[in-house]
Fold this protein.
Amino acid sequence: MKPVRLIFLAILFYFLSGCENVDVVETKIEYKEKIVVSSEITAGSIFSGVTFTRTLPIGEPYDINKAQISNALSYLRINYVKIIPLHYHSAGLYLPSDSLEVQPGDVYELFGNVEGKSVYAETIIPKRAAISNAVIETNYIHTSVTPLEGEAYGAKWLIYAPGSGDTVDAADQFFSIVEPPESNPTGPMAVRTSVIPDLYLSPAYLDRTYMEIYSFDKAYLKYYNSRGNQQVINNTFIQGGASVVWNVFGDDVIGLFIGMAKSKIKAN
C-alpha cells in the first residue's frame, strides 16, 4: 500500500474514532440588564403611578424584591409647564404626594434618573371614543368609532354579573389595534372585539354583554404591531424581544408610558 494512502486512512480513522467523544458546545446568550418603566395613564381616573424595575437574568424566577428599583429620581411634567415630583412607594412604584386626576388632552412627560441612567417618555391622554352603538355579530362585537388625530383604538368584550356592576369575565386580549387610514383620517372606522366564548353567546347573557372601547396614544399601535407578530403577551415587560418598539427612551431602558381612555357600551 502506498504511503500516501496509508496516511489518508490513518487521518480518516482518527476523525471517525473521535466522533464519539465530540462535546456539544452550548452558546449562551449574553445577558444585559435593562431598566423597565411601566405606566398606564387613564383619562378621568387618578394617576396610578410609574413603576421602575430591572430585568433579571434569563432563567431566574421573577422576584419583585430583586427587580424593584427604589432609588430612582423622577418627576412628571404636565403640558410642558407643571412639575410633579414622584416618590417611591413600594415594589418599584412611584407616586406623587397628592392625588392627581388625569384630564383628556393633557400631555404627560416623564423624566427620571436611575443609578446614573437617564429616562424620558412622553404621551398624550386621549379622549373617550365617540360611539353610537355596539352590535353582536355572530360571535364578536363591533362598532364604529369617530377617530381623532394621534389616537389608535381597540376593544374588548365584558360580561357582567346580573344586577351588579361586577365583571364575571372579560377578554384578555385585543383582536386588533387600528388607526384611521390616511385617505380618510376623520371618517367612521370599524373596531371589533376578539371572539366571545360560546358560553356567553346564549340569550341568558345578552343583557349582560358589553363592549369596552380603548382609545390609545398612537405610540401604543407601534408597540402592538412589533410585539412578536401580535402574539398574546400576558406580561408586557417580561416577554417580547429587542425588536419591540417602546415609547420610553434612555440608556438601557425599555417600557411603556402610555395615555389611554376607556368607554363602555351595552351590546345589542
Remarks:
- Residues 134-232+260-266 form a domain with the Immunoglobulin-like fold (CATH 2.60.40).
